[in-house]
Amino acid sequence: MAANAPYLLQLPVRSPEFRVLITGGYAIFRSQMEFPFSRKNHAISLRARKVRVVECVAKSTELEALVKDGGDDDNDDGDEVRGDDDKVVTHGDSVSSQRSASASSGDSLSLGIREPVYEVVEVKTCGTVAKRKINRRHLLKSSGLRPRDIRSVDPSLWLTNSMPALLVREHAILLNLGSLRAIVMQERVLIFNYNRLGGKAFIDSLLPRLNPTSTNGGPSMPFVLEVVEAALHSRIQRLEHRLWDLEPRVQALLEVLPNRLTADILEELRISKQKLVELGSRAGALKQMLLDILEDTHEIRHICIIGRNCVLKKENDEIECSVPLDKEIAEEEEEEIEMLLENYLQRCESCHGQAERLLDSAKEMEDSIAVNLSSRRLEVSRFELILQVGTFCVAVGALVAGIFGMNLRSYLEEHVFAFWLTTAGIIVGAVLAFYLMYWYLRTRKIL
Fold it and tell me: Which stretches are tagged as biased composition: Basic and acidic residues (predicted)?
């Protein structure tokens, strides 16, 4: 029979696999005989069967022990299914939860997702500078920020988050000023792009403020305000230096043009105009950011209470502190912050206005150059039209000469003065036709 049925499963009688099959079949048969008309018990028996199969596959040694004990274990399992349904369901759920947890961990490992690690420069209140590597989880825990807050200062997203921003949170301030990206906390500041020009300029501006020798024992303002002022000062100072470099070049080009039109001068004007557009857009974005902060008193008062046991009322945004002295200091700092922002807003507006004026002058010069070139092209077009008219009149005279040049007898060649009369007629006709066409074009205001 084995030869006639080659696909039958052949197992030795004393093998563990054969005992597992016999035990499982006996349990199914017994559950169906005891509860033939109950769908609920049938579903429970199926779930119990699945649990038993999982346990059998996972632990073959325990199955061998169960088979040796006989039908008592089966009866106990059947009683467990009949009387303690919740226990079986819970066991199945625990198995499925373990499977899902292991699957999710396996998926995360198989995807190869790594937690980002940032290389930053840490500057403390005493002025010490140190390079650190900090992962995202530790950064969020130490600063009290949320994952969505890191997006504004993440150096890997510098293309998408290029607009300047000053975000105030409960325990930190996030600065995004172009190439400068930093997180300001009560006792330290983390600078991300410390190798770029904005980061270097910010460090050079911040360290003298924190140096005790230059500030007579420490910073005159709180550390957070010192960092914010240093960031704004370094950023606006860079914009002003760019403007100071561009202004004499643009003024020299405006003096030379439009009398001297060369390719080099026009290319230099184009590059200067492009730089002015970039400078004006950056100064305008920074000005808008400062205006938004000054108009939002909630953000300014939130800066004042960082590091203090104070809260803001939701009704009227008033400061409430556990110590009355902290409230007075916070109110004084609020006025200082407004004066500070107003000062840098004026500098930013001055820079933006000067860049816009130079840009308008460059655009007017381009318009003047375009008008000058258009007038020159018009003169050339008029001269070309006059030449075309003259050419047409001469072509008519050549047509007459060609007609007389044919090898056909017209009997004019027999007269002595026929040649001179024909030549004079051609010249007079060409000149007369030219003046007639010129008069017509001037009447129609074409020339």
Answer: 80-90
Name the token pair of 65. 């022990």
Query: Is the model's pTM score more than 0.70?
Result: no
Do 177 and 286 touch, CB atoms closer than 8 A? yes
Helix (H, G, I), strand (E, B) or coil at 155: helix
* Residue 176 CB neighbours (<10 A): 24
pLDDT in 10s for each residue of the chain, 447 residues: 444 444 444 545 555 555 545 555 555 545 544 444 444 444 444 344 443 433 433 333 433 433 334 434 333 433 333 333 333 333 334 333 344 334 333 443 444 557 788 899 999 988 889 998 988 888 888 888 888 888 888 888 766 677 888 988 888 899 998 888 999 998 899 999 888 888 899 999 898 888 755 545 444 678 888 899 999 999 999 999 999 999 999 999 888 887 788 888 889 989 999 999 999 999 999 999 999 998 888 888 888 877 777 777 776 667 777 777 777 777 788 888 889 899 999 999 999 999 999 999 999 888 888 888 888 888 899 899 999 999 998 898 888 888 888 877 777 777 878 888 888 888 898 899 899 988 988 888 887
Based on C-alpha coordinates, what's the Rg of the chain? 46
Pairwise CA distance, residues 52 & 155, whole Å: 54
Q: For residue 438, what are its two tokens?
A: 């010129």
- State the Cα–Cα distance between residues 330 and 307, nearest whole angstrom: 11
CB atoms within 10 A of CB 197: 13
